[in-house]
Fold this sequence. Notes:
Layout: H1 2-6, H2 11-26, H3 30-43, H4 53-68, H5 72-90, H6 95-110, H7 114-130
Amino acid sequence: IYDQVYGQNNILTLNTRATLAAAEFRAGNLNKAAELYRQALGQGQSSLKPNSMETARILNELAYLYFRQGKFDESLTFYQWALASTEGAAGKDSPLTAACLKDYAQVLRSAGRTSDAAIIESRADKISSAGQ
Length: 132
């Protein structure tokens, strides 16, 4: 309905598609969820700004989905993009950036890159402690 009424690139359509992807993810339909997230990103290229919270949210959720599937390389790539979007939208010292950094560090650790994970976690901790 949203595609027909608002068009594929409309922010309402993209957010609805991302919400549907999240529901599919929670239902255990990971491949369908990944497809919907990728559609939202692809269709939103003309309307979503790279440094917007909407883009960051979709990238972050897709990165987490890949992490849950054990696809660490894909997850790392999407977390890097999510981090760049989050920093651009919320700022480098934002609690949202710190949360994204912690998620990214978790994937680095799972991929066996413990020293990289420690550096990222340290940065996240500095942001978190500065905000207290």
